[in-house]
Description:
Elements: E1 16-20, H1 27-34, E2 62-65, H2 78-88, H3 93-106, H4 122-133, E3 140-144, H5 152-167, E4 171-175, H6 179-185, E5 188-193, E6 196-202, H7 203-209, E7 214-219, H8 225-233, E8 237-239, E9 242-246, H9 252-259, E10 264-269, H10 274-287
Amino acid sequence: MEAVRSVSLTLAVGEVLAFLGPNGAGKTTTIKMIAGLIRPDVGRVHIAGVDPHRNPEALRLVGAVLEGNRNLYWRLTPEENLDYFGVLKGLTRRDVRRRSRELLERFELTSKRRTSVQKLSRGMQQKLAIAVALIHQPKLLLLDEPTLGLDVEATQYVKALVRVIASEGCAILLTTHQLDIAEELSDRVAIIQKGEIIAAATTRDLIQQFSGTTYIIEVEGELDQLRVQALQAVGVQVQAGKVVYMGNPQGLYSVIEILKPLPLIQVKKDSPDLTEIFLKLVREKSDA
């Protein structure tokens, strides 16, 4: 039985790829192959051009936060975790101390550096898990459900952190069931179902692909009867004070001309979010 088939993913420097799929679709298997934990029966993994299954040195280019914060030793302190994993990744004692200080300060954990991990809040544990994954300055960061179980403040912090890490040139493979976060953070999306990639595109293009030709126009003030009649004459619907136009973008100008001089609040294209697209694709694949 094949867990995944013909899965091909490519990440560029500084790019965030949201790797999405329902439970059992093959996400974890794929990530573990990238992380060197499972050897693929067929195909290869390349990290900066090096296959980690043929050359373990390539794994020094990878940082991973898998299954929440399982990459931590809970009885150790943040300082001890960073020291241990830094040495494990091949850093010198001097570099470990330097990187540990940098990361503790950056992740606002300096005051908790000598507190055991099990006594930290869930948000602090997650920040430390990401810090540990970054101790050796990897080129690729694997983030599995990085915001799961976090409160609003900690979630916002992790999201901002992902953006900063990517902007510094690290490629990030992100898996999450929180699709609003995936839509917000990702440059590209790959959706896997039953071990196969069923969609792969930039996040913008994927949403555009499923967008219709409906535009919603909100105006300040009430529409008088003459304007309503003029709008209806060109096929425009007026619903709950909003103008709903369905057609090509050029036709919008004639609608806006009718609305003058009423101030426009917004003109918005009615488009689905990533959650709606994900559910549509997964259901279609399940029904096929």
